[in-house]
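Subject: sequence -> structure tokens, single chain

Hey, anyone have a minute? Need the predicted structure for the following. Not urgent.
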Amino acid sequence: MAYLLNYSRYPVSSKLYDPRLAYSMHLAISEDGKNFEALNHNSGVLFGLATENEDGSLNPKCLKSTCLFALKDGGYGVVCIRTAAEGEPDEQSIGKVLFYTTKDLVIYEDKGFVQADDVHIMKVTCTFDATKGVYVLTWMNGYGQWKQAIFEDVQNIVLSEVTLCAPVKSEEPALDIPGAVPENVIEISAEEAEYLRILFRILIVN
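Reply:
Had a minute. Here:
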């Protein structure tokens, strides 16, 4: 068994590591859950896609509050908030949560948005409840309210009635990774960890 950390980074500057790079999903691996090794040279692996205006110009986007979770039938899911170019709230996705799925933690399929709230969402998490066989989506909105809803199928996301819930608290590991902002940690197999190490090493070299 190994541990996979999902994290973002603090923006440094437009020349060194600007918000459009920093506000993305990064990955790091650990065997003990304490000492993490950054993958992909401490660079992101999943980024927000720009939207296009009628005149053909683009609106850069970022991803914040990314959360990795295991899927019931294998593979992994990602929930996150899309933001504008500098990490500020995105007026094009108010109250929406963006979903991705991945079989190998390298290639990600965009599953689109789900409308969860009627105001901006600031934080979001998702887990699979094996005892009930449902996914639990939890978020904090711009008013500081924590809310929760469940759904059964990540391929066809239909949220249940939204209810208020207690704040989600998570332990953040102490990291020796420059600029890292931890999001969440999941367990993966030793084979998956080795595959990711080898693959991202090849990608960096090439």
